[in-house]
Design brief:
alpha/beta; 7-stranded mixed β-sheet; binds uridine-5'-diphosphate; single chain; Spore Coat Polysaccharide Biosynthesis Protein SpsA, Chain A; elongated; about 325 residues; binds magnesium ion; 10 helices
Length: about 325
Amino acid sequence: MSSRLLLVVPCYNEEEILRSTNQKLLDYFEILISKNLIDSESKICYVNDGSRDKTWTIIEELSGLSSRILGVKLSKNFGHQNALLAGLFEFRGQFDCYISIDADLQDDINAIEAMILKYREGASVVYGVREDRSKDSFFKRFTAEFFYKLMFKMGIPLVFNHADFRLIDNQVLEQLEHYNEVNMFLRGIIPTIGFKSEKVFYSRLEREAGETKYPLKKMLTFAWNGITSFSTFPMRLVLWFGIFNFVVAIFVGIYTLISLYLGKTVSGWTSTVLPMAFFSGSNMIAIGLIGEYIGKIYEEVKSRPRFIVEKTVGTSKS
Ligand code: UDP
Ligand code: MG
């Protein structure tokens, strides 16, 4: 039995590339359908993320030409992650599986076949993993890989070199709805949802037209968002720094007292340096402690699910 696939493509100012992307996707869908891997009712959904160019007009035109094309227009630019979610949630439950891919097709569409095969073998999530980044600029590759390593160090559950090219099934999409946070960092959230997952490897291609919609500033905001949505590590650093400061203050204190005792100081020096060292250390600890509680509050307000049941047996639901 072939499955109904929805391909979700977020588009922000992609007028230069959209038509060629669409043609490639349509051709590829025909191949998948002829191989009986996906159902003929499978669709492609373009989400216009508040583009300022003709992207939406093109989406409307493409949708008029083929019943395979769906379009969703967001009222303004909400960012890549939200555009993706909008496409997924708009059609949830109407398909068997959902694949997200960037409009520039830098992620090789030929990996979709392998994704579908893994899905058919029972995987609920299939991560597209970039095996070869040689087509990315040195800067992009360096910053991206540094970011993944940093996230790992902080204990954030990322799949190395996986971005947002992935397949999820209905079960996972349903659970995704229980994550109510405004700053969705999907590549961190999906692994926390669980279920059986697989990886498919591919080489990252070059962007054929238009330029990256992730300039450095956006990339940094995105990375920072990812870190702060998943880790209270930066905040804990303050506490550790406070403790370190305090230990240093003790030594500084001893030093100033010895100097005072030996009469090597000018008047007023000890009474200035001693309290300064002591209070800066204790202040930093106090800030760190407050941070710990704010971190707890942050975890609570995100109200992520505490657990997710995959199956039960012997009950009426099974
Ligand atoms: N994108 C979006 N909203 C934004 C920025 C980007 O929907 O605010 C889309 C963009 O159209 C593309 C995908 O996100 O489909 C990834 O962007 P891009 O390829 O420019 O990023 P890069 O590959 O350079 O990281
Ligand atoms: Mg790209």
